[in-house]
Amino acid sequence: MSKIKVENLTKVFGKKPNRALSLLSEDKSKAEILEKTGLTVGVNKASFEVQDGEIFVIMGLSGSGKSTLVRLLNRLIEPTQGSVYLNGNDLATVDQKTLRNIRRKDMSMVFQKFGLFPFRTILSNVEYGLEIQGVEKKQRTEKAMESLKLVGLEGYENKYPDELSGGMQQRVGLARAFANDSDVLLMDEAFSALDPLIRKDMQDELLDLQETMKKTIIFITHDLDEALRIGDRITIMKDGKIVQIGTPEEILTNPADEYVEKFVEDVDRSKVYTASNVMMRPETVQPEREGPRVALQRMRENGISSIFAVKRNRELIGIVDASDVRKLVDEKQDDLTSAIKRDALKVVEMDTPVNDVIELTAETSYPIAVLEDGKLRGIIIRSSILAALSGKEVNLDD
Amino acid sequence: MTEAIPRIPLDEWTRSVVDWMTNADFIFDSIEQVISWILQGLYWGMDLVPALLFIAILTAVTYFFAGRKIGLTAFVFFGLLLIVNLGFWDDMITMLSLILAATILSIVIGVPIGIWMAKNNTVEAIVKPILDFMQTMPAFVYLIPAVAFFGIGMEPGVIASVIFGMPPTIRLTNLGIREVSTEAIEAADAFGSTGTQKLFKVQLPMAKTTIMAGVNQTIMLSLSMVVIASMIGADGLGDIVYTAVGRNDVGSGFEAGLAIVVVAIILDRLTAGFGLRKRKS
């Protein structure tokens, strides 16, 4: 079920923003509208759905409207047009009191520069959301401590924000958001202000926490690596417009346009790709019904020096070398079985990361077999990995 | 050429406005009454404590609440003893009640105006030039309408001090609230704070240091008004200075002036200390 549904959400900054709306419906660009009306288009007719328990990443460069978009969701910025449905309620039209209640109970936010209150202790920072709801002191302290424990900040509750490192401050930001028990978490460049190593730790931790908490997270970032690492789905924005929505793989393998393509050019694909992304269609022989001559003939046709032996249901048996097969042919044998080798063969699963596959290629001279339930789905040779990492299309049919 | 244009009768106009305003006697009377109560209350409260106990309390407060500075604490102790020694204690208490009354009024009126300015750009645009006007108009000028409305005595002195001293509190309240980081404001909003909760739980606490700097300025400006206020009958140390000037008595003028300086330094350091007071880490 979709938790959040955004329809046609638009934000135009400036006086009398309605002037820009008709131009937008004529598909005029952001620059044209700025020139004609002096209005800045922040978000241009964004529509998407976020599933319950999903990490939905919104990615774009600065000025792409991603931060505006996330603020339209909880109405820190008032939308000019469009709807945001949360559990079926249109947030864009609810009154202030309902909005306040939704902000208190259903949506929490984590900020890029943490947004902590410097004059409050860590504990009372985390308590803030509960405090303004009028939750009793004892109860909110309990809840806040629980939440601090979750992010690994036990023992820091009486410190002040400026006594903590950036990473720890953002943990406080997270704890504050968790303390409210809301289903939806809006994270605006939450890890961007942290240095790379800490950032990675925080990403891992968020993923760990998400395993158990199953929140619906909308995560804003300008960092594609981060998006690919944590996103279940990624939205790419440019000039206030959504350019593409897809899984990390879809974005990488099938960029919607040149903009996205340029974006994904520099990605370290070895971290994202799995064996299934780089495998090729294997040449096989079935010893149950095919003999040495067929095997030799098939190898010659394809210009290869070894061939995989499988059962009728494509279950992998092993591999045979051209030289061994030739020997069998010379000896006029009809059965391939004696030439099949299994030990020298390296196998991986469909979802093995390419990084691990690369290590294996060094240990064997044969192609690596990719299995699914013991059945041969594809093979990987060094050149197919290199091709995939350099961004070339790898096709199973090639 | 310039003679051709008749002189604009600005003085006439002002006079008739002030004359007209004196019709609203009852308003000024009640204001005067309130100020009078505040003054009497403050004086009564401070006079109740024997001088030496007062000094002991203030010294302790200085030590514990203004950063545990030995030098400052010693200054407060010996400075106040000097005032007792010179026989100015009672005058100092009188002066202090005038300053504190002016400060209290400045905070009570100034902070809400500052908050309003911070929340509304139009209000800011209107109030700012008025503040400039209030501060640049020579302080003596305020004495004239103050006397017209409130007669002579301590009360018009307080009024003149408030007009002259309030602008920094308003300005710095406005500035302090405007300076609160957008992220803190967004965080307060994103967690569902009401406007009042945001103001009292986030904006004012975060602006506290800046507001206190404004209050500190207000106190200093009120202090600079005490000699001027004595011209319209306000008692206290200022009056001694004023009398000394009339008699060309350098000796007592210097004594009273020195006492004012001591009080000024103590008030300044104490309020600055409160403003900057940070939690112990």
From TrEMBL, chain B:
Q: Which PROSITE patterns match?
A: ABC_TM1
* Presence of keyword Ribonucleoprotein: no
Q: Domain named ABC transmembrane type-1: which ranges?
A: 92-271
List the CDD domains hit by this protein, alphabetically.
Answer: TM_PBP2
**Pfam families reported for this sequence:** BPD_transp_1
State the family it belongs to.
Belongs to the binding-protein-dependent transport system permease family.
Q: What is this protein called?
A: Glycine betaine/proline transport system permease protein
